[in-house]
From TrEMBL:
Gene3D superfamilies, alphabetized: 2,3-Dihydroxybiphenyl 1,2-Dioxygenase, domain 1
Protein known as: VOC family protein
Pfam families, sorted: Glyoxalase (PF00903)
Domain VOC: 3-132
Source species of the chain: Litchfieldella rifensis
């Protein structure tokens, strides 16, 4: 396994984060306290830290144009195998998740062709999940 990353984000409510990341996305929960929760985000250590000051607000997000879409920045996510990405699309669609950028194939017919989708967690953190038919050959294709 490649080196897993560690990422920590702020959330407005830990139970809400448990429902979103644990139940909806299917990320097993690891250690936790009253102010943070570790999740296994597809093999990576992902931590939600409580920031009640977020309230109903969201972290600042900017949009940059990529392939004709306004991509939210900052964002994070995981590169998945295509079958796992398709299963996640089905699960999110069935749950009624509102996509910022609907699932589609980006850079079609070009090096780096990829399936991608963007959506926000309940605290306003932007997520992108993507997949390639050949991760090793396409992830850093130019």
């Amino acid at each position: 396994m490649p080196n897993p990353f560690h990422l920590a984000v702020q959330v407005r409510d830990l139970e809400e984060a448990r429902g979103f990341y644990g139940e909806l996305l299917g990320c097993p929960e690891g250690r936790s306290s009253d102010t943070w929760v570790d999740f296994n985000l597809f093999g990576h250590q992902f931590v939600c830290h409580l920031n009640p000051a977020l309230g109903n607000g969201a972290p600042a997000v900017h949009h940059n144009s990529v392939d004709g879409h306004g991509v939210p920045v900052p964002h994070f996510g995981v590169v998945l195998e295509m079958a796992d990405w398709e299963a996640l699309v089905d699960r999110l669609t069935a749950a009624g998740v509102r996509f910022e950028i609907e699932p589609y194939i980006r850079f079609q017919g070009e090096p780096g062709e990829q399936a991608t989708m963007f959506f926000f967690d309940p605290s306003g953190n932007a997520l992108e999940f993507k997949a390639f038919r050949d991760i090793a050959g396409q992830l850093f294709a130019t």
